[in-house]
Specification:
Blueprint lengths: L3 E2 L1 H14 L4 H8 L3 H8 L6 H11 L7 E2 L10 H11 L5 H26 L1
Antiparallel strand pairs: 1-2
Helix pairs in contact: 5-6
């Protein structure tokens, strides 16, 4: 199976980082050293070139590997919910009780949508 870049997931992660930093897309472009039109193209589903990907990963701290579908070996990776919980617990901006509260909300939403997807695919 050919590896594939998960562009939408990458853009969503960039957007979450942008929102956490309370930045506009124009500011992101300036700070990352890419053009604003490049960010617009990524938002529209176009994949970034390698230099843009590197610049955005460097700016955001995201790993490009997290956005590559590897096929069958994806099963060996950490479950998404486990990764979210780990990140929440490691966030120095959150008190432990705040991280736990967010975890409860995310877990509830995740399980609800996960069940809906299973029902819809049967």
């Amino acid at each position: 199976m050919r590896e594939q870049f998960l562009n939408e997931a990458f853009f969503d992660a960039l957007d979450a980082h942008r929102l956490a930093k309370d930045l506009t897309w124009k500011s992101v472009a300036e700070k990352a050293g890419v053009s604003a039109s490049t960010l617009t193209r990524i938002a529209q589903g176009k994949r970034p070139d390698v230099d843009t990907l590197a610049a955005l990963c460097k700016w955001s701290g995201l790993s490009a590997d997290r956005f590559i579908a590897h096929g069958s070996d994806d099963r060996d990776r950490l479950e998404p919910l486990a990764e979210i919980v780990a990140h929440l617990r490691a966030d120095k901006n959150l008190k432990p009780e705040g991280a736990k509260a967010i975890e409860v909300m995310v877990r509830s939403a995740y399980e609800q949508f996960r069940k809906e997807r299973k029902v819809g695919t049967e």
